[in-house]
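Inverse folding, one chain.
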């Protein structure tokens, strides 16, 4: 996955397996973290991330035209910042990656799915505050 350095703005490719190591920017050596939702660009990237992540992965299946999805986006940002290093928050655009949504039986959006070690462990649909998401998904 690509994490943006908060200091110099450089994109850094970071394997999911190194998330707990607090990786450093390749350009300026500043510590970088996944403290914002990570946008998934392909099914392969998604599979590797879910499989290799040492922390639970919270996936937001959403679409740009979805009003409730836009409403819940700031709540996901809060959750990603609050739980950085303990939970990885990722976003899957079901309009751009429809096969990925179908593969995971997403029938309404937003749908939030928790993965642990590559397996789905919890699921909930609908817009809600960050605290309610944490409780519902056991984060």
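Residues assigned per position:
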């Amino acid at each position: 996955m690509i994490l943006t350095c908060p200091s110099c703005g450089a994109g850094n490719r970071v394997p999911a397996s190194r998330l707990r190591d607090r990786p450093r920017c390749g350009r300026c050596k500043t510590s970088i973290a996944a403290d914002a939702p990570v946008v998934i660009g392909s099914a392969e990237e998604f599979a590797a991330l879910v499989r290799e992540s040492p922390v639970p992965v919270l996936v937001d299946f959403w679409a740009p035209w979805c009003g409730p999805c836009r409403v819940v986006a700031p709540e996901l940002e809060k959750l990603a910042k609050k739980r950085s290093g303990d939970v990885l928050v990722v976003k899957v655009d079901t309009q751009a990656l429809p096969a990925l949504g179908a593969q995971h039986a997403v029938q309404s959006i937003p749908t939030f799915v928790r993965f642990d070690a590559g397996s789905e462990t919890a699921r909930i649909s609908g817009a809600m505050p960050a605290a309610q998401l944490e409780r519902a998904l056991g984060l």
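Residues 20 and 85 are 6 Å apart (CA to CA). The chain is about 30% helix and 25% strand.
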